[in-house]
Amino acid sequence: MMGAAMAHDAPLAPQTLAEDRLYNFAAGPAMLPAEVLEASARALVDYRGMGIGVAELSHRGPEFDAILDEAIERCKSLCGIPGNPDYDVLFLQGGATQLFTTIPMNFLQGSADYLETGEWAKKAIEAARPYGTANVVGSSAVTGYDRVPDGWTATPDASYLYVCTNETINGTRIGHLPHHPTLVADVSSEFMARPIDARQFALIFGGAQKNLGPAGVVVAIVRRDLYARIPKDVPPIFSFAAHAKAKSCLNTPPTFAIYMLLETFRWIERQGGLASVEARNERKATLIYDVLDEQSDFYRATVHDRPENRSRMNVTFHLPTQELTGRFLAEAEARGMVGLQGYRTVGGVRASIYNAMPEAGCALLAEHMRDFAEING
Ligand SMILES: Cc1ncc(COP(=O)(O)O)c(C=O)c1O
Description:
Radius of gyration: 21 Å
Low-confidence stretches: 1-7
Structural class: alpha/beta
Mean pLDDT: 95
Shape: globular
CATH superfamily of the largest domain: Type I PLP-dependent aspartate aminotransferase-like (Major domain)
Number of strands: 14
Order of helices and strands: HEHHEHEHEEEEEEEHHHEEHEEH
Distance between the termini: 56 Å
Bound molecules: pyridoxal-5'-phosphate
CATH class of the largest domain: Alpha Beta
CATH topology of the largest domain: Aspartate Aminotransferase, domain 2
Helix content: 25-40%
Number of domains: 2
Protein backbone atom coordinates (compact mmCIF):
# COMPACT_ATOMS: atom_id res chain seq x y z
CA MET A 1 0.00 0.00 0.00
CA MET A 2 2.75 2.42 0.94
CA GLY A 3 3.84 4.39 -2.06
CA ALA A 4 0.89 3.29 -4.16
CA ALA A 5 -0.80 6.16 -5.90
CA MET A 6 -4.00 6.98 -4.05
CA ALA A 7 -6.82 8.79 -5.74
CA HIS A 8 -6.77 11.78 -3.41
CA ASP A 9 -9.21 13.81 -5.47
CA ALA A 10 -11.52 10.96 -6.43
CA PRO A 11 -14.99 10.73 -4.88
CA LEU A 12 -14.85 9.09 -1.50
CA ALA A 13 -15.79 5.48 -0.98
CA PRO A 14 -19.21 4.62 0.52
CA GLN A 15 -19.33 5.84 4.09
CA THR A 16 -18.68 2.72 6.06
CA LEU A 17 -17.58 4.81 9.01
CA ALA A 18 -20.79 6.81 9.02
CA GLU A 19 -22.93 3.70 9.25
CA ASP A 20 -21.26 2.44 12.39
CA ARG A 21 -20.86 5.69 14.24
CA LEU A 22 -22.74 6.94 17.27
CA TYR A 23 -24.36 10.34 17.40
CA ASN A 24 -21.83 12.25 19.44
CA PHE A 25 -23.36 15.38 21.00
CA ALA A 26 -20.18 16.36 22.90
CA ALA A 27 -19.26 20.06 22.95
CA GLY A 28 -15.65 19.64 21.84
CA PRO A 29 -13.68 17.70 20.89
CA ALA A 30 -16.76 16.90 18.90
CA MET A 31 -18.18 14.87 16.07
CA LEU A 32 -16.41 15.39 12.74
CA PRO A 33 -17.73 14.57 9.27
CA ALA A 34 -17.04 10.92 8.37
CA GLU A 35 -15.72 12.01 4.98
CA VAL A 36 -13.17 14.27 6.65
CA LEU A 37 -12.08 11.47 8.97
CA GLU A 38 -11.72 8.99 6.14
CA ALA A 39 -9.77 11.34 3.88
CA SER A 40 -7.53 12.37 6.80
CA ALA A 41 -6.98 8.76 7.85
CA ARG A 42 -5.82 7.89 4.34
CA ALA A 43 -3.51 10.88 4.22
CA LEU A 44 -2.13 10.01 7.65
CA VAL A 45 -0.84 6.71 6.28
CA ASP A 46 0.22 7.86 2.85
CA TYR A 47 0.05 11.40 1.53
CA ARG A 48 -0.67 11.47 -2.19
CA GLY A 49 1.35 8.35 -2.93
CA MET A 50 4.53 9.79 -1.43
CA GLY A 51 5.15 6.77 0.78
CA ILE A 52 5.00 8.93 3.91
CA GLY A 53 2.01 10.27 5.76
CA VAL A 54 0.88 13.86 6.04
CA ALA A 55 1.84 14.09 9.74
CA GLU A 56 5.38 13.05 8.78
CA LEU A 57 5.95 15.88 6.30
CA SER A 58 8.33 18.67 7.25
CA HIS A 59 6.52 21.86 8.09
CA ARG A 60 9.16 23.66 6.02
CA GLY A 61 8.78 21.49 2.92
CA PRO A 62 6.84 22.29 -0.28
CA GLU A 63 4.03 19.79 0.37
CA PHE A 64 3.09 21.24 3.74
CA ASP A 65 3.50 24.75 2.38
CA ALA A 66 0.93 23.92 -0.30
CA ILE A 67 -1.44 22.56 2.37
CA LEU A 68 -1.02 25.79 4.33
CA ASP A 69 -1.65 27.96 1.27
CA GLU A 70 -4.77 26.04 0.32
CA ALA A 71 -6.10 26.07 3.90
CA ILE A 72 -5.53 29.82 4.18
CA GLU A 73 -7.18 30.56 0.85
CA ARG A 74 -10.16 28.27 1.41
CA CYS A 75 -10.66 29.76 4.87
CA LYS A 76 -10.59 33.27 3.43
CA SER A 77 -12.96 32.32 0.69
CA LEU A 78 -15.46 30.70 3.10
CA CYS A 79 -15.29 33.82 5.29
CA GLY A 80 -16.10 36.24 2.47
CA ILE A 81 -12.57 37.58 1.91
CA PRO A 82 -11.15 35.54 -1.01
CA GLY A 83 -7.70 36.82 -1.93
CA ASN A 84 -8.09 39.80 0.42
CA PRO A 85 -4.60 41.03 1.38
CA ASP A 86 -5.87 43.07 4.34
CA TYR A 87 -6.40 39.94 6.45
CA ASP A 88 -4.18 37.11 7.65
CA VAL A 89 -5.40 33.63 8.49
CA LEU A 90 -3.30 32.25 11.34
CA PHE A 91 -3.12 28.75 12.76
CA LEU A 92 -2.14 29.11 16.40
CA GLN A 93 -1.67 26.91 19.45
CA GLY A 94 -2.47 27.26 23.15
CA GLY A 95 -6.21 26.99 22.60
CA ALA A 96 -8.75 29.76 22.36
CA THR A 97 -7.89 30.28 26.03
CA GLN A 98 -4.43 31.54 25.10
CA LEU A 99 -6.01 34.18 22.89
CA PHE A 100 -8.04 35.44 25.87
CA THR A 101 -4.62 36.65 27.07
CA THR A 102 -2.76 37.41 23.84
CA ILE A 103 -5.54 39.63 22.46
CA PRO A 104 -5.31 42.18 25.29
CA MET A 105 -1.51 41.70 25.46
CA ASN A 106 -1.28 42.77 21.80
CA PHE A 107 -4.15 45.19 21.34
CA LEU A 108 -5.46 46.62 24.61
CA GLN A 109 -4.27 50.16 25.18
CA GLY A 110 -5.95 51.70 28.22
CA SER A 111 -9.33 50.02 28.04
CA ALA A 112 -11.38 47.62 25.97
CA ASP A 113 -15.10 46.85 25.92
CA TYR A 114 -16.39 43.37 26.69
CA LEU A 115 -19.91 42.00 26.38
CA GLU A 116 -20.46 39.41 29.09
CA THR A 117 -22.76 36.88 27.45
CA GLY A 118 -21.68 33.80 29.40
CA GLU A 119 -18.91 31.75 30.96
CA TRP A 120 -16.50 32.09 28.00
CA ALA A 121 -16.84 35.86 27.76
CA LYS A 122 -16.34 36.01 31.53
CA LYS A 123 -13.07 34.10 31.27
CA ALA A 124 -11.88 36.47 28.54
CA ILE A 125 -12.73 39.46 30.74
CA GLU A 126 -10.71 38.05 33.63
CA ALA A 127 -7.75 37.37 31.32
CA ALA A 128 -7.81 40.98 30.03
CA ARG A 129 -7.59 42.63 33.46
CA PRO A 130 -3.78 42.47 33.86
CA TYR A 131 -3.43 44.52 30.65
CA GLY A 132 -5.76 47.44 31.35
CA THR A 133 -9.39 48.17 32.04
CA ALA A 134 -11.93 45.67 30.81
CA ASN A 135 -15.20 47.61 30.58
CA VAL A 136 -18.09 45.19 30.95
CA VAL A 137 -20.52 47.14 28.77
CA GLY A 138 -23.35 44.64 29.15
CA SER A 139 -23.88 41.45 31.13
CA SER A 140 -26.54 38.80 31.57
CA ALA A 141 -24.85 37.31 34.65
CA VAL A 142 -27.74 38.25 36.96
CA THR A 143 -30.22 36.20 34.91
CA GLY A 144 -27.85 33.22 34.70
CA TYR A 145 -26.63 34.03 31.17
CA ASP A 146 -30.00 33.10 29.73
CA ARG A 147 -29.90 35.86 27.11
CA VAL A 148 -27.71 38.20 25.11
CA PRO A 149 -27.52 41.51 27.00
CA ASP A 150 -29.12 44.46 25.23
CA GLY A 151 -29.45 48.19 25.78
CA TRP A 152 -25.69 48.70 26.13
CA THR A 153 -23.40 51.19 24.43
CA ALA A 154 -19.76 50.99 23.45
CA THR A 155 -17.17 53.24 25.13
CA PRO A 156 -15.83 55.77 22.60
CA ASP A 157 -12.09 55.42 23.28
CA ALA A 158 -11.96 51.67 24.01
CA SER A 159 -9.31 49.73 22.04
CA TYR A 160 -11.82 47.19 20.82
CA LEU A 161 -15.20 45.58 21.48
CA TYR A 162 -14.95 41.89 22.40
CA VAL A 163 -17.85 39.46 21.99
CA CYS A 164 -18.31 35.70 22.20
CA THR A 165 -20.81 35.05 19.44
CA ASN A 166 -21.92 31.63 20.70
CA GLU A 167 -21.69 30.66 24.36
CA THR A 168 -21.02 26.92 24.38
CA ILE A 169 -21.86 26.39 28.05
CA ASN A 170 -24.93 28.58 28.38
CA GLY A 171 -26.38 28.08 24.92
CA THR A 172 -26.83 31.69 23.79
CA ARG A 173 -25.95 33.20 20.44
CA ILE A 174 -25.62 36.76 19.21
CA GLY A 175 -27.86 36.72 16.12
CA HIS A 176 -27.08 40.20 14.84
CA LEU A 177 -23.54 41.30 15.48
CA PRO A 178 -22.89 44.84 16.67
CA HIS A 179 -21.10 47.21 14.30
CA HIS A 180 -17.77 48.39 15.67
CA PRO A 181 -14.58 49.55 13.95
CA THR A 182 -12.51 47.10 16.02
CA LEU A 183 -14.78 44.14 16.66
CA VAL A 184 -13.03 41.10 18.17
CA ALA A 185 -15.01 37.86 18.32
CA ASP A 186 -14.58 34.44 19.84
CA VAL A 187 -16.51 32.29 17.37
CA SER A 188 -15.12 28.97 18.65
CA SER A 189 -18.39 27.10 18.88
CA GLU A 190 -20.01 28.38 15.70
CA PHE A 191 -17.08 28.88 13.34
CA MET A 192 -18.39 28.22 9.82
CA ALA A 193 -21.81 27.19 11.06
CA ARG A 194 -23.37 30.20 9.38
CA PRO A 195 -22.14 32.71 6.79
CA ILE A 196 -19.39 35.01 8.07
CA ASP A 197 -18.17 38.21 6.51
CA ALA A 198 -14.72 38.63 8.02
CA ARG A 199 -14.72 42.30 6.99
CA GLN A 200 -17.10 42.99 9.89
CA PHE A 201 -14.31 42.07 12.28
CA ALA A 202 -10.84 43.20 13.24
CA LEU A 203 -10.11 39.74 14.63
CA ILE A 204 -12.09 36.49 14.73
CA PHE A 205 -10.80 33.37 16.40
CA GLY A 206 -11.92 29.91 17.33
CA GLY A 207 -10.58 26.61 18.59
CA ALA A 208 -10.99 24.01 15.85
CA GLN A 209 -12.26 21.21 18.04
CA LYS A 210 -15.97 21.93 17.60
CA ASN A 211 -16.82 22.59 14.00
CA LEU A 212 -13.55 22.43 12.13
CA GLY A 213 -11.22 19.67 13.18
CA PRO A 214 -9.34 18.10 16.05
CA ALA A 215 -8.12 19.92 19.16
CA GLY A 216 -4.71 21.57 19.00
CA VAL A 217 -5.19 24.41 16.56
CA VAL A 218 -6.90 27.78 16.77
CA VAL A 219 -7.89 29.61 13.61
CA ALA A 220 -7.55 33.39 13.80
CA ILE A 221 -8.41 35.86 11.06
CA VAL A 222 -6.70 39.16 11.78
CA ARG A 223 -6.97 42.53 10.04
CA ARG A 224 -3.40 43.56 9.34
CA ASP A 225 -3.71 47.20 10.41
CA LEU A 226 -3.96 45.94 14.01
CA TYR A 227 -0.29 44.94 14.07
CA ALA A 228 0.75 48.60 14.37
CA ARG A 229 -0.73 48.59 17.88
CA ILE A 230 1.37 45.75 19.28
CA PRO A 231 3.73 46.91 22.05
CA LYS A 232 7.42 46.32 21.31
CA ASP A 233 7.93 44.15 24.39
CA VAL A 234 5.42 41.45 23.35
CA PRO A 235 7.50 38.26 22.87
CA PRO A 236 7.32 36.94 19.29
CA ILE A 237 5.63 33.69 20.32
CA PHE A 238 2.69 35.76 21.67
CA SER A 239 2.71 38.34 18.88
CA PHE A 240 0.07 38.10 16.14
CA ALA A 241 2.38 40.03 13.80
CA ALA A 242 5.25 37.58 14.33
CA HIS A 243 2.99 34.58 13.61
CA ALA A 244 1.65 36.30 10.49
CA LYS A 245 5.15 37.12 9.23
CA ALA A 246 6.18 33.48 9.69
CA LYS A 247 2.95 32.19 8.03
CA SER A 248 2.08 30.29 11.23
CA CYS A 249 5.47 28.52 11.17
CA LEU A 250 7.26 30.54 13.82
CA ASN A 251 7.61 27.22 15.58
CA THR A 252 6.44 23.76 14.48
CA PRO A 253 2.71 24.13 13.83
CA PRO A 254 0.20 21.31 14.47
CA THR A 255 0.55 20.06 10.90
CA PHE A 256 -1.94 17.20 11.00
CA ALA A 257 -4.60 19.32 12.69
CA ILE A 258 -4.12 21.94 9.96
CA TYR A 259 -4.47 19.23 7.32
CA MET A 260 -7.77 18.16 8.90
CA LEU A 261 -8.95 21.76 8.81
CA LEU A 262 -8.27 21.79 5.09
CA GLU A 263 -10.30 18.61 4.63
CA THR A 264 -13.13 20.22 6.60
CA PHE A 265 -13.01 23.38 4.47
CA ARG A 266 -13.25 21.20 1.35
CA TRP A 267 -16.15 19.31 2.91
CA ILE A 268 -18.01 22.55 3.74
CA GLU A 269 -17.65 23.61 0.12
CA ARG A 270 -19.00 20.24 -1.04
CA GLN A 271 -22.03 20.83 1.22
CA GLY A 272 -22.77 23.94 -0.83
CA GLY A 273 -20.95 26.44 1.39
CA LEU A 274 -21.97 28.24 4.54
CA ALA A 275 -25.47 29.25 3.46
CA SER A 276 -26.54 25.64 2.98
CA VAL A 277 -24.70 24.56 6.14
CA GLU A 278 -26.64 27.24 8.03
CA ALA A 279 -30.00 26.17 6.56
CA ARG A 280 -29.36 22.61 7.71
CA ASN A 281 -28.23 23.80 11.16
CA GLU A 282 -31.45 25.83 11.51
CA ARG A 283 -33.55 22.76 10.71
CA LYS A 284 -31.56 20.64 13.18
CA ALA A 285 -31.87 23.12 16.05
CA THR A 286 -35.58 23.62 15.37
CA LEU A 287 -36.24 19.89 15.78
CA ILE A 288 -34.94 20.06 19.36
CA TYR A 289 -36.21 23.50 20.38
CA ASP A 290 -39.70 22.54 19.17
CA VAL A 291 -39.81 19.74 21.74
CA LEU A 292 -38.51 22.05 24.47
CA ASP A 293 -41.31 24.51 23.70
CA GLU A 294 -44.01 21.84 23.39
CA GLN A 295 -42.95 20.11 26.60
CA SER A 296 -42.04 23.20 28.63
CA ASP A 297 -43.78 21.76 31.72
CA PHE A 298 -41.16 19.01 31.78
CA TYR A 299 -38.04 20.45 30.15
CA ARG A 300 -36.64 23.84 31.06
CA ALA A 301 -34.65 25.44 28.22
CA THR A 302 -31.80 27.61 29.58
CA VAL A 303 -32.70 30.27 27.02
CA HIS A 304 -36.47 30.41 27.48
CA ASP A 305 -37.68 34.03 27.25
CA ARG A 306 -35.68 35.05 24.21
CA PRO A 307 -35.83 32.38 21.50
CA GLU A 308 -33.96 34.73 19.16
CA ASN A 309 -30.93 34.42 21.48
CA ARG A 310 -30.86 30.62 21.29
CA SER A 311 -27.71 28.95 20.09
CA ARG A 312 -28.10 26.78 17.01
CA MET A 313 -25.02 24.82 18.05
CA ASN A 314 -25.42 24.10 21.78
CA VAL A 315 -28.96 23.43 22.96
CA THR A 316 -28.99 23.47 26.76
CA PHE A 317 -31.83 22.41 29.03
CA HIS A 318 -32.72 20.89 32.38
CA LEU A 319 -35.03 18.11 33.51
CA PRO A 320 -37.01 18.38 36.77
CA THR A 321 -34.55 16.31 38.86
CA GLN A 322 -31.00 14.97 38.72
CA GLU A 323 -32.34 11.45 38.89
CA LEU A 324 -34.43 12.04 35.76
CA THR A 325 -31.44 13.67 34.05
CA GLY A 326 -29.31 10.60 34.78
CA ARG A 327 -31.93 8.27 33.34
CA PHE A 328 -32.51 10.51 30.32
CA LEU A 329 -28.78 10.38 29.53
CA ALA A 330 -28.49 6.62 30.10
CA GLU A 331 -31.50 5.87 27.89
CA ALA A 332 -30.17 8.23 25.20
CA GLU A 333 -26.89 6.33 25.25
CA ALA A 334 -28.75 3.04 24.82
CA ARG A 335 -30.27 4.56 21.66
CA GLY A 336 -26.84 5.52 20.26
CA MET A 337 -26.58 9.12 21.47
CA VAL A 338 -23.57 10.06 23.60
CA GLY A 339 -21.96 13.21 25.03
CA LEU A 340 -25.25 14.82 26.08
CA GLN A 341 -24.35 15.70 29.66
CA GLY A 342 -24.28 19.45 30.45
CA TYR A 343 -21.06 21.32 31.28
CA ARG A 344 -19.60 20.18 34.57
CA THR A 345 -20.43 23.42 36.45
CA VAL A 346 -23.99 23.82 35.19
CA GLY A 347 -25.30 20.25 34.85
CA GLY A 348 -28.43 19.35 32.92
CA VAL A 349 -28.31 18.36 29.27
CA ARG A 350 -26.41 19.95 26.41
CA ALA A 351 -26.85 18.83 22.83
CA SER A 352 -23.98 20.14 20.73
CA ILE A 353 -25.11 19.86 17.14
CA TYR A 354 -22.22 21.19 15.11
CA ASN A 355 -21.99 20.95 11.32
CA ALA A 356 -21.07 17.26 11.36
CA MET A 357 -24.17 16.18 13.31
CA PRO A 358 -26.65 14.74 10.79
CA GLU A 359 -30.27 15.84 10.83
CA ALA A 360 -31.15 12.23 11.68
CA GLY A 361 -29.21 12.59 14.96
CA CYS A 362 -31.29 15.61 15.96
CA ALA A 363 -34.50 13.86 14.90
CA LEU A 364 -33.59 10.88 17.08
CA LEU A 365 -32.84 13.14 20.03
CA ALA A 366 -36.17 14.94 19.56
CA GLU A 367 -37.96 11.57 19.50
CA HIS A 368 -36.14 10.49 22.66
CA MET A 369 -37.13 13.74 24.39
CA ARG A 370 -40.80 13.26 23.47
CA ASP A 371 -40.81 9.60 24.52
CA PHE A 372 -39.07 10.35 27.81
CA ALA A 373 -41.39 13.23 28.70
CA GLU A 374 -44.45 11.12 27.87
CA ILE A 375 -43.40 8.32 30.21
CA ASN A 376 -41.93 10.45 33.01
CA GLY A 377 -43.81 13.75 32.74
C1 LIG B 1 -16.72 29.71 23.12
C2 LIG B 1 -15.45 29.11 23.64
N1 LIG B 1 -14.35 29.87 23.75
C3 LIG B 1 -13.19 29.39 24.20
C4 LIG B 1 -13.06 28.08 24.57
C5 LIG B 1 -11.74 27.57 25.08
O1 LIG B 1 -11.14 26.80 24.12
P1 LIG B 1 -9.79 26.00 24.42
O2 LIG B 1 -10.14 24.87 25.31
O3 LIG B 1 -9.38 25.58 23.04
O4 LIG B 1 -8.82 26.92 25.03
C6 LIG B 1 -14.15 27.22 24.45
C7 LIG B 1 -14.03 25.80 24.83
O5 LIG B 1 -14.95 25.03 24.85
C8 LIG B 1 -15.37 27.76 23.99
O6 LIG B 1 -16.46 26.97 23.88
